[in-house]
Amino acid sequence: MQLRFSYEKIDALCAAPLSQKYNCPILLNIKENLLSSTKKEIQRLEAKNAVIIGGTGAISENVEKELKAIGLSCTRISGEDRFDTSVKIAEKLDFNGEVCVATGLNFPDAISISSIATQKGMPVLLTMTYKCPQSVKDYIKNKNITAAYIVGSDDVVSDGVAGNFPHVKRLQGNDRYDTNMAVISNFAKELKLSTVYVATGSNYPDALAASALAAKTHSPVFLVNDTAVDKTKEYLLQNQILPNVVAIGQTDVVSDGVVKELLQNTGNTNGNLQLNKPGIDENYTVIF
User: Fold this and answer.
1) Average pLDDT, stretch 254-283?
2) For residue 72, which of 285, 281, 280 has the smallest C-alpha distance?
3) Per-domain boundaries in the chain
4) Which pLDDT band, with edges at 50, 70 and 90, does 215 fall under?
5) What does the pLDDT look like over 62-85, one tens digit per residue?
């Protein structure tokens, strides 16, 4: 299992598929020092290895020293910028022909594809709106890409950028919540809907943490705001889905009212999840 440390939100979202490969959790941390809560979780997990995502501008050398001081072997994955870092992460994955492409200038679209990318082991490649980074072009140049999922509208990833990829399918909506539903609907046949995860769409950490957890059960992660998004409710109702709803985060980010709306009187609610150490080899890893 891997621990991932990151202060840069986009770096963190690109790293999510690594959690599937290494069968490990993702832990978030601040830049300057190792949080006491993070340290306690590492010790509870009895982790042996840490993968740090991003340069010292995201996670400082001081944090790395603190990790080593408690017995972890550390590896850092970073590039010249967030776009290059997304490529460096992609190079660590086992390429299966499919890639995701999202803007590197904001987090909502990358959030929506992150859980699916984690389940399928697909890299999340970051781009600018009107220019595809050279590092991304170099990565895909000799790849036999069978599907390239462009997340978001032409306003965030232009058709010109999309044109650099073969076999393009654009997944988009009117806003981040519509885009989230477009992603889930596209991959619905590959998902198990007996359990669904719900996280706020207003920020990235909870949805990121949920993506690694949801991947273990092939579950979707629905993004919500102060109220349950109508399209999410419609989707569950139209497909006659009465799921076990797992809300990620405190009630100030996903309220009990939102959960009740989604439950539709099923009464199957879980909360306050704690990630337990899986039964894997002794070289337990964590990603930061």
Assistant:
1) 53
2) 285
3) 4-273+282-287
4) confident
5) 999 999 999 999 999 999 999 999
Residue 244 · residue 195 · CB < 8 Å = yes
Sheet containing 221-224: order of strands: 221-224, 195-200, 244-247, 269-270
Helix (H, G, I), strand (E, B) or coil at 206: helix
DSSP category for residue 202: S
Task: Name 85's Cβ contacts closer than 8 Å, sequence gap at least 6.
Answer: 11, 14, 53, 54, 55, 77, 78, 79
CB-based contact 285:27 (threshold 8 Å): no
Give pTM, 2 decimals.
0.86
pLDDT given for residue 280 in this prediction: 33
DSSP state, residue 285: E
Going along the chain, which residue ranges are E strands? Answer: 4-5, 49-53, 73-77, 98-103, 124-127, 147-151, 168-171, 195-200, 221-224, 244-247, 269-270, 285-287
Among residues 109, 93, 115, the alpha carbon closest in space to that of 217 is found at: 115
Burial 102-124 (b: 16+ CB within 10 A, else e): bbbeebbbbbbbbbbbbbbbbbb
Task: Report the length, in residues, of the chain.
Answer: 288
The backbone torsions φ and ψ at residue 248, rounded to the nearest 5 degrees and listed phi first, read: -100, 125
What pLDDT was estimated at residue 265?
41
Residue 3 gets which letter from DSSP?
Answer: B
- Report helix, strand or coil for 180: helix
